[in-house]
Request: fold
Amino acid sequence: MKIQTLEYFIVLAESSSINEAAQRLYMGQPSLTKALHLMEEELGTVLFIRSKSGIALTEEGKKMLPEARQVLKYYRGWCGLAERRTLKRVNICSHISLAGFLIPDIVLRFQERYPELKFKCSTAPNPEGFAVLAANSPAVSLCICEDEQYRAINQRPDFKARMLTEGYYGCLVNKSSLLAQKNVVTFDDLKDYYLALPSDILPENMERGGSWASFVKDFLPDMLCAIKPNHVVQVDAVSSVIKLTMERPEIFAVSFFPAHYRYAGVRSGELLNVPMAAPCTRGQLCLVYSRRDYRCYPVVRDLVNGIADACSRFVAENTGVSAVRSD
Reply:
């Protein structure tokens, strides 16, 4: 049995329903249900009683809960014994809308300062879950969080969400596009336009059929109603999306303010990021990381503070406004 499975069990025991537990763990309900079934099969006993009103521990589950907490406490203590010299890798995960934002330059500087470490970078639709569930190596995630997500992470004693700045999703469009004339864009406004998506940040395990819909659903599900299947253009990379958007006024891309200023076309005025009107497009740019890793590893502290400082400078340089931060 994996340590991660014990964490699933503990969170389930502390929740009123599987759905609530899945939200706290930042994973899908079917995946959590399957993990629970496998755990019960391995132990040969039923741990939860399911009913229409939710879930409750069986007598066997009640007996196991304090022991599981103790095992998890031991495990985290053992992990805390690690010294910096034994650390071999640091994982960094960015939200798909933030691909190429801040992280590449920062990782280059840190690789020079910590040549003995490997910095592994990736993108994901829900990088906050990546940080929360990472077990083997320290992980730092650059995320776009809604208020509820931000509060839920900071209520946990073992993880922290550090707000860097507030922002919103917008439509990145050519300056000659009719969308560029609007103060805000509704999803209905997008029905006659083409959405450009970069294949290089689509999850590798997605099936070909309908993959773009799964991709969009992970971070802006309400926008799906406006996107026609034949109005999605997949190109090889983020750079190709930007090039295509600069060339074609009928194309739009999705970008997050203020990270969209990383594109030269935005800074030159060739591209505009028009805010989306829906409340679901508002969010907070956050760093999510383990409190223990922040305490134990100087490189994690340096990395978190380095990203936060770089974001503050970036926002101030491009907007003239200081970033909103919660340290």
Remarks:
- Residues 59-80 form the longest helix (22 residues).
- The CA atoms of residues 25 and 111 lie 31 Å apart.
